[in-house]
Amino acid sequence: MTVTSLHDSRRNSDPYWDARVDLACAFRWTVRLNMHEGIANHFSLAVSDDGSRFLMNPNSRHFSRIRARDMLLLDAHDRETMNRPDAPDPTAWDIHGAIHRRAPHARCILHVHSKYALVLATLKDPVMPPIDQNTMRFYDRIAYDNGYDGMGLGEEAERLAAKLGDKTVLVLGNHGVLFANASVAAAFDEMYYFERACETLITAYMTGRELSVASDAVARKTAGQWLAYPSFAGSHFNELKAILDQEDPDYRT
Q1: Which residues 6+ apart lie within 8 Å of 116 measured at CB?
Q2: Which of 46, 65, 113, 194 has CB 3.0 to 4.6 Å from 51, enough for a Cys bridge?
Q3: How do 142-145 and 108-112 pair as beta strands?
Q4: Per-residue pLDDT tens digits for 180-219
């Protein structure tokens, strides 16, 4: 059976198959962009109207090997989840479960420790000034957590969910970054451009020269112009899937 026919067969039998494929694509591209953390970090995608039922990567699986069929189907209200034989990573279960319970807008949650975003998260002042179009994209759209108190278990996870609020990006001080958006495509696009923005910002800091910071009015205007491209993220993600379909199609299996 070809990858295409297998994909079509599973799409007909699994109502969440397309969601599984999108997540698998995100994992594979996170590796290609060297934004992964070995077998750590987790992505999830809500599949119920209230967001409490969600797909997430299995415990201890490298992103480069994750396929559509590997995703765990979890319920954020199920207290027996960690007793399952295929129980997810404890920190992933706590953080993603808490956010899916508390933040309906967070349909897709991508959490990474990517190089430049992590550098930003280690700064005493991690606020991103608007110095170029990519940093301006995130103007007034980032939540910041500076209360790191461990690896995200229990009360720490609930605190992070509260800190996110209605934002789509959460910089986790001393930890990393988290993206929460309406779809895998939207969250991945933000993850990609946020890392680019952080790379520009950190490189600019390294020069030791004074930054040219845009005014609040210009930054706000530019952020709005980014949001006025509703099909941009989808087009970007469709291209990523098209590349994988040519070079690494088993992500769909």
Answers
A1: 195, 198, 199, 201, 202
A2: 46
A3: unpaired
A4: 999 999 999 999 999 999 999 999 999 999 999 999 999 9
- DSSP letters, the chain, are --HHHHHHHHHHH-TTHHHHHHHHHHHHHHHHTT--BTTB--EEEE-STTS-EEEEPPTT--GGG--GGG-EEEETT-TTGGGSTTPPPHHHHHHHHHHHHH-TT-SEEEEE--HHHHHHHTSSS------SHHHHHTTT-EEEE----SSS-THHHHHHHHHHTT-SEEEETTTEEEEEESSHHHHHHHHHHHHHHHHHHHHHHHHTSPP-PPPHHHHHHHHHHHHT-TTHHHHHHHHHHHHHHHH-GGGG-
- Listed by start position, the domains of the chain span 3-252
The fold adopted by the segment(s) 3-252 is L-fuculose-1-phosphate Aldolase (3.40.225)
Scanning the structure block, which residue is given the tokens 């001393």? 174
Q: What tokens were used for 63? A: 């992103």
Strand partners of residue 54: 46, 74
Strand partners, 181: 108
Rounded CA-CA distance 27/49 in Å is 24
pTM equals: 0.94
User: For the segment 5-54, what is each residue's pLDDT rounded down to a tens digit?
Assistant: 655 667 767 999 999 999 999 999 999 999 999 999 999 999 999 999 99
**Alpha-carbon gap, residue 243 to 208, rounded angstroms:** 39
